[in-house]
Each structure stands twice: as C-alpha cells, then as structure tokens.
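Incident log, support desk, overnight shift.

02:14 A customer reports that sequence design results differ from what the structure should imply. Their input is reproduced verbatim below. On-call engineer (initials T.W.) acknowledged and began investigating.
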C-alpha cells in the first residue's frame, strides 16, 4: 500500500493553522470568562468559524441555589429566538404547498376577525408589517402574563385581533401577536399541535433532541432557572406563562441544538435556497425578513463589509442570540439565564477576536462601583465618586443615569435614588423624562410637594406627558 507523505512546508502550514486556531479558542474563552467573572454573563456560548467549533462551553450556574453549573447541555428559554423556528416551520409548509405567503389570515383561520383577517397576509405576519398590535400593548396583558386562563382560540381572539395600527404592508411594527397567529395557522394546516409540528418538521429531522416547546408545561430536565440581576445581587425572575408567549417565544433549547438548526438552515436542509433568500430579504420598512434581522456591518468595524443575520430573544430571567456572519461562515450562539447579558458587546468582542482586531475585556461596571461606594461611605461619597467619573468621561448618559436611579429604588435605596435623579434633572434641565422620574421618586418617598413641582416641570417641557398629568391629579387629591 502506497502512503503519500506530506511535505515539510505543508506540515508547517497545518501546524501554524492549528496553533492559530488554538490561540483564538483560548482568547475567546478568556473573553467570555471576563464577563462571567464580572457578573455580566451567566450561561452557555458556542462559536464556530468556517465549520470548526472554536468554543462550546457553559459559564456560571444553571441553578444558583444548588450551584448546578451551566454546561453545553443546559436548556434555556430562548424567548423571541423562537421566531426564526416558527418562520422556518411556516416556510417548510410553504414548500409542501400547504401555505401560500400571499394568502390572508382568513384563508387559514375562517373564524378570525373578518374586517382585518382578509387584509393581512402570511408574508406580512412573518416580517412584522401586518399592523396587528403587539400582545404587550393590550391593556389586560399584565393580568395574564404569569397565569394565562385563556384557551388558544380565546387568546388569539382577545389579544391578537386588535384594530390595525396601519394599512398592512405600509410600515414595520414588531408584533408577538402576529407570530401567535402563525402558530395557530401551523396547527390548522398540519392538524397537529404547535409542539408536535415542531417535533415532526424541525426537531426530530435535525436531531435537535434537547429542544422543545415550553407551552406544554411539562418538567424539562437540565433546564436553567431564570434570574434577574439587581445591585444587591440576583433574585428569581418573574414567571411568564409559556402559553402567553406561544409561537412567538415558547421554545427552549441548547447552544448545540441551535447550532444544528443554524447549520441545517444555511445548507438548505430545511427548505430550498429560493425560500432561504426570501427569508433573508429585509422588508422595505426595516431590516427584518422572515424571523430574522439582517444587519450590514460596516468595513471599518472588522476590515470588510459583512452581513449579520440574527435574532435576539429576551424575557424575564433569560436573554440570548443566534448570529450568523454570512461571508465568512461564522456562527455565534449566546444563551444567558440572568436576564441582561450585554449581547452586542459580547458579539462584537467575539468577532474582533476572530478577525484579529483589538478587543476590550469586561471589567467591573460603574453602577456596581457606585453601589459599593454608597453602601460603604454614604450618598454624598457616591455622588462625589460619580462626579469624578464624569470628569474623566466615564459617566452615564442621561438615560443611563436615570436607569441607575431605578436600580437604586429596586434595592430600596430611595434617598440615594432621589439624589441621583436630582443630579440628572440638574444636568439635563430640558428633559421631561428626568423630571418625571424625579417626581416618581419623591412620590414614592411621600414628599408630595416636591413631587408636584417635579411633575409640573416635566409637563411644562412635554405637554403630552400623560404620566405626569395623571400624577399631578393624584397628588392634588392627596394635598
């Protein structure tokens, strides 16, 4: 048997490539670890470059109380990253001739509201140009968020059938209601539950055995518990009933399974190249296709023009993203179970490492430093510390300072919150929002006269501030 030996130059090239890959992998791990060490990330990450997985690892804990680590097998609620899978299922049914993108809601759901259901097409539901209001905007939504007493038909009738905000196809407005309707259409044309349709058309064929639909309500082994970060530490996240999120946000998965989905999608294993192109074609009104955001990354960022296709997801206790950079076959999958990981910073840092550009590792956040100063030395010392940060251009934006005030209220530091809201109003005297927040803090502290002055100032800047006008009426009744 003849065995061809590789030349020394070829061996050296292979060795150099392997060495460079190992260095990238090590740097990626250290970069993500820096966010984990600074309590900015707690979850699992997968990064692949041209088909090779460079990083696949869990960080922190799936369950804080029992110190159960996150791993590559940990299942996370993926929230709105469900939408690409719902869209993929719709397109699979389009390919089978069971759904037509140009047909209306009423063509598939005859019981849907007649005056609007005949105007809105499947295409418009997929790219959020339907005009159907978002579920969250319904006045009764908060009453059912944690415990939904409605059947699917009743839920769609009550929460997904509002008056159209605009003529379908004329504007973009993100709507979970639209994707809930798509879920019901899937059930109608397949005669399967949404869960079973996912299993039959997506999860089982792609061997995504660690993914499923939380709508069913069963216990999911190896699932992460959701937490929310506060200045005082983590707390359990508010519960969301998965029947509310349904086909807009009810799926759980792992980074590995989501990678299998991504690979299958881009290699046309789910549906044809022609349908994939349609899915990745942005609406004229926003950079959104069928369940995907399509973002052009400028050349100055990474040395070349790049196209990023992704869909983030967020709900109490969880956030994440599934990202693909088309030109260089890069996949980044991030899933987090402490609610607010900085996805954009993580993604940009990972790409900087892959493209061998400068990268900034995570460090302690300003709000954590200020809170430590506050607890140790008091309000005046915390204010002084913040002023020093501002002098070196490290302070918050107006919005950031306002948010910090609310973070302080959350941990019951109301006097400190008032001090920072006062500072924000002083520094931004033309901001209606700054005075509105100051009024809210005074009102919470039962300083009614000060609250009235703050709200009146807010209303004088923005006469349409409904919150301020209602608060003024309330305070006048108390005085």
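02:41 Re-run completed on a clean worker. Output:
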């Amino acid at each position: 048997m003849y065995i061809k030996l590789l030349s020394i130059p070829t061996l050296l090239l292979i060795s150099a490539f392997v060495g460079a890959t190992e260095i990238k992998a090590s740097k990626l791990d250290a970069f993500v670890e820096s966010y984990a060490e600074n309590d900015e990330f707690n979850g699992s990450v997968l990064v692949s470059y041209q088909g090779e997985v460079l990083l696949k690892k869990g960080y922190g804990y799936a369950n804080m109380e029992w110190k159960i680590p996150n791993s590559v097998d940990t299942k996370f609620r993926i929230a709105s990253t469900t939408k690409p899978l719902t869209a993929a299922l719709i397109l699979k049914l389009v390919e089978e001739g069971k759904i037509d993108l140009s047909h209306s809601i009423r063509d598939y759901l005859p019981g849907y509201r007649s005056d609007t259901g005949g105007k809105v097409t499947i295409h418009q539901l997929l790219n959020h140009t339907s005009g159907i209001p978002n579920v969250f905007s319904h006045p009764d939504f908060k009453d059912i968020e944690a415990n939904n007493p409605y059947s699917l038909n009743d839920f769609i009738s009550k929460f997904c059938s509002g008056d159209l905000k605009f003529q379908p196809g004329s504007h973009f407005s993100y709507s979970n209601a639209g994707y809930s309707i798509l879920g019901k259409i899937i059930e109608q044309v397949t005669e399967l539950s949404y869960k079973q349709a996912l299993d039959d058309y997506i999860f089982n064929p792609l061997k995504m055995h660690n993914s499923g639909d939380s709508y069913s309500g069963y216990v999911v082994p190896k699932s992460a518990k959701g937490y929310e970060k506060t200045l005082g530490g983590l707390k359990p996240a508010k519960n969301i009933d998965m029947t509310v999120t349904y086909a807009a946000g009810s799926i759980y998965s792992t980074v590995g399974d989501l990678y299998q989905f991504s690979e299958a999608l881009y290699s046309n294993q789910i549906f044809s190249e022609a349908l994939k192109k349609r899915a990745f074609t942005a609406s004229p009104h926003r950079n959104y296709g069928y369940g995907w955001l399509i973002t052009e990354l400028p050349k100055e960022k990474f040395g070349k023009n790049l196209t990023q296709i992704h869909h983030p997801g967020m709900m109490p206790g969880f956030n994440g993203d599934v990202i693909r950079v088309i030109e260089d076959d890069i996949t980044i999958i991030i899933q987090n179970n402490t609610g607010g990981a900085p996805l954009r910073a993580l993604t940009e840092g990972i790409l900087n490492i892959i493209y061998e550009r400068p990268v900034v590792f995570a460090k302690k956040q300003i709000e954590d430093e200020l809170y430590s100063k506050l607890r140790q030395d008091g309000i005046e010392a915390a204010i002084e510390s913040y002023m020093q940060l501002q002098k070196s251009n490290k302070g918050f934006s107006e919005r950031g300072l306002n948010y910090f005030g609310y973070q302080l209220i959350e941990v019951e530091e109301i006097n400190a919150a008032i001090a920072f809201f006062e500072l924000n109003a002083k520094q931004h005297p033309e901001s209606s929002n700054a005075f509105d927040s100051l009024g809210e803090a005074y009102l919470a502290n039962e300083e009614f006269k000060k609250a009235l002055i703050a709200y009146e100032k807010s209303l004088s800047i923005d006469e349409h501030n409904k919150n301020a006008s209602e608060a003024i009426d309330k305070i006048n009744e108390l005085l």
